[in-house]
Design brief:
single chain, six-stranded mixed sheet, alpha/beta
Length: 526
C-alpha cells in the first residue's frame, strides 16, 4: 500500500467527530499536559525545552491502570499530550548576556503551522519519544483497554488528519483502540461527564473556529494562532533556554517573576505591551491572600467611572495593579516613560478595565512600604465605596463566571435539551484541583475538577518546603532543575456508576530515593 494511502486509512480509523464512550462500565482515568516535545539534543542531553523526561513514571502508571482494572481501562488524555508550540528548528544566540531565539518553521503569513509543517514537528516528537508512545500502544492493546486523545492548544495540530495518522502509527495500537477526538472534547455515553482540555475558556489561549481552527489560503490550511502561542514563541522559548523549570510552576506568572528577578528588564524581549496584557489577564488574585490573610467579608458596593478612566488615565494603572515588590512591575515601570505601554489601556474591553481597577484595590490592600507614594486608583461613580472584601470577591468570582458561561454553551452543544452533564473534567492550567461544586444555573450544579499536569511541578507546597535562603537567592530559578522537582504526577479517576459517579483527584508518586511507585491522595513528603 502507498505510504500516504496507509496514513489516510489509519486516520479514518483513529479520528472520530464525536467521542462518546462509557464512563462507568470500566475504569475511566484522565491525564493532561504531558508535553512530549523536542526531546534530546545532538549530544544526547535533554533539551532545556523538553518538559517530559518521565517515561518510567508514565509506563509504570499505565501498568498500574491495567493491573487495577483487569485490563479494562479507559485513559483519556485531555490535551497537550504533545508540545507542538516549540520547534527543533530553532536557533538561539547570546549577545550581552541576553538569549535571543529564532523559530525557522510555522512563521509564514501571521498564522500557525501548515499541515506539512505540523507533520514535520510531530515526526520529530514521535522519534524523540518513541518508547513512551509504544508503551501507550502496548497499554491500548491489552484486554479491553482504550485510549482517547483530546487535542489541546499546544497540540491543536492533531486536528489535521495526516498528523493524527503519524501519531497513531507511532503508537501502534490495534484498530480503534486509540482514537483522537476531533470534536475537541470527550463525552460519556450517558452524557453525564464532559471532559476537555480547558483552553477554550481561557481568553489568551482560545482558538477562533474551534474545533476547526484553520485559515484556508491558496496554499492550503494553516492553524489559527492564539495570543498564547505568540507569547510561547517569543518569550517562553527564549527563557526556557536558561531556565528549564520556568513553565513548571502552578501559575505561569510565578516562573516569570523568578526569571525577571534574575535577569532584570533585559529579560523581556517580547513586546512589553503584550507582556503587560498577559500579566493583567493571567495573574491570579488568589495568591494575594497569601499576603493579605483571610478574605474579609464584603462591605459596600462601588462602580468604576469607565468614561472618566478612558478620558483621563493611561497605562500607569496597569503598573499599579501589580504588587510593589513584583519584578514584573519594575519592568513595566521602566517601559512606561518610553511610551511602550501607550496603546494598552484603549485596547482593554470594559470588562477588562473593571478587572484592572478591582486588582488595584486588592493590591493596594497590602501595607504600603514606608515612604512609598500612595497607589493611583481608579475613580468611582457617585462617591460610593466598598471594602477590600468586595473587590476581592469580584475578582475571585470572575473566573467562575467565565467558566459557567462556557459550560452553559457546552450544554447546548452536547445535550440538545436533555439532562445536562453533572461532572466536568479539564486540565490546561497545570494546577491540579479537587472536585468542587459550581452552580451554573439555579437548577443545575456541576462538579468541576482539574487534572493538573502529568509533569513534575513546583507547587507552592514544594517551594515552601525549601530553605528560605535557597528561594531568596537571585539565581534560584537557574539552579532549579526539572529532576529536582517532586516525583509526583496528578490524574483524575471516576468512581461509582450511573448517577453516583464522582471524580477523585489522585497522584502517581514515589518518595525521594524510592523505587516503588504508588497511587496516593497527595504528593506527600518528597
Amino acid at each position: 500500500m502507498h505510504p500516504l494511502l496507509r496514513l489516510l486509512v489509519l486516520t479514518v480509523v483513529a479520528c472520530l467527530s464525536t467521542i462518546a464512550l462509557p464512563a462507568t462500565a470500566r475504569g475511566t482515568f484522565f491525564v493532561s499536559d504531558l508535553h512530549l516535545g523536542v526531546g534530546r539534543t545532538a549530544n544526547g542531553s535533554w533539551s532545556p525545552l523538553e518538559d517530559f523526561r518521565w517515561h518510567a513514571a508514565f509506563a509504570s502508571f499505565l501498568d498500574h491502570l491495567s493491573r487495577t482494572t483487569n485490563d479494562d481501562a479507559e485513559l483519556v488524555i485531555l490535551g497537550d499530550m504533545l508540545e507542538l508550540w516549540q520547534s527543533s528548528r530553532m536557533q538561539c544566540s547570546r549577545l550581552a548576556g541576553v538569549t535571543s531565539c529564532t523559530v525557522l518553521d510555522c512563521v509564514g503569513g501571521g498564522t500557525g503551522c501548515s499541515e506539512g509543517e505540523a507533520r514535520a514537528r510531530v515526526r520529530n516528537v514521535v522519534k524523540q519519544h518513541a518508547a513512551t508512545l509504544r508503551a501507550l500502544g502496548a497499554f491500548a492493546a491489552r484486554g479491553a483497554n482504550r485510549v482517547v486523545i483530546v487535542p489541546g492548544n499546544h497540540d491543536a495540530a492533531l486536528l489535521f488528519p495526516s498528523v493524527v495518522a503519524v501519531v497513531t502509527q507511532a503508537i501502534g495500537a490495534p484498530p480503534r483502540r486509540v482514537q483522537v477526538a476531533a470534536s475537541g472534547r470527550w463525552l460519556s455515553a450517558d452524557k453525564a461527564v464532559l471532559a476537555e482540555h480547558g483552553h477554550q475558556f481561557d481568553k489568551v489561549n482560545a482558538f477562533a473556529g474551534w474545533p476547526t481552527p484553520f485559515t484556508v489560503t491558496s496554499a492550503g490550511r494553516t492553524l489559527n494562532r492564539p495570543g498564547g502561542e505568540l507569547l510561547v514563541q517569543t518569550f517562553y522559548n527564549r527563557y526556557e533556554q536558561e531556565f528549564e523549570t520556568i513553565d513548571n510552576f502552578t501559575t505561569e506568572t510565578e516562573g516569570i517573576g523568578y526569571a525577571i528577578r534574575e535577569l532584570g528588564a533585559r529579560g523581556v524581549v517580547v513586546g512589553v505591551h503584550e507582556f503587560a496584557y498577559f500579566l493583567l489577564v493571567r495573574s491570579t488574585v488568589k495568591q494575594r491572600f497569601d499576603w493579605l490573610g483571610p478574605q474579609p467579608p464584603a462591605e459596600g458596593e462601588a462602580e468604576w467611572d469607565l468614561a472618566l478612566i478612558r478620558k483621563d488615565y493611561d497605562a500607569a494603572l496597569v503598573i499599579e495593579s501589580l504588587p510593589r515588590d513584583a519584578p514584573e512591575r519594575h519592568v513595566l515601570a521602566a517601559a512606561y516613560p518610553r511610551g511602550e505601554l501607550a496603546g494598552l489601556l484603549p485596547e482593554l474591553s470594559d470588562q477588562e478595565l473593571v478587572m484592572l481597577c478591582d486588582r488595584i484595590e486588592v493590591t493596594a490592600g497590602v501595607a504600603e512600604p514606608a515612604g512609598a507614594a500612595p497607589a493611583q486608583r481608579c475613580p468611582k461613580q457617585g462617591g460610593r465605596d466598598a471594602n477590600l472584601g468586595y473587590f476581592a470577591g469580584k475578582l475571585l468570582k470572575r473566573d467562575d463566571d467565565e467558566l459557567t458561561s462556557y459550560l452553559s454553551q457546552a450544554r447546548e452543544q452536547t445535550t440538545a435539551g436533555g439532562a445536562p452533564f453533572r461532572l466536568f473534567v479539564f486540565g490546561h492550567t497545570h494546577a491540579a484541583a479537587q472536585p468542587r461544586p459550581l452552580k451554573v444555573a439555579p437548577e443545575w450544579e456541576v462538579s468541576v475538577v482539574n487534572t493538573g499536569a502529568f509533569q513534575r511541578i513546583a507547587t507552592p507546597e514544594f517551594i515552601a518546603s525549601l530553605p528560605a535562603a535557597e528561594v531568596d537567592d537571585p539565581a534560584f530559578l537557574s539552579k532549579l532543575k526539572l529532576e529536582g522537582l517532586p516525583d509526583c504526577y496528578s490524574f483524575v479517576m471516576l468512581k461509582g456508576a450511573g448517577p453516583a459517579t464522582v471524580a477523585a483527584l489522585r497522584f502517581w508518586t514515589r518518595s525521594a530515593g524510592a523505587k516503588t511507585w504508588r497511587e496516593s491522595e497527595s504528593c506527600g513528603a518528597q
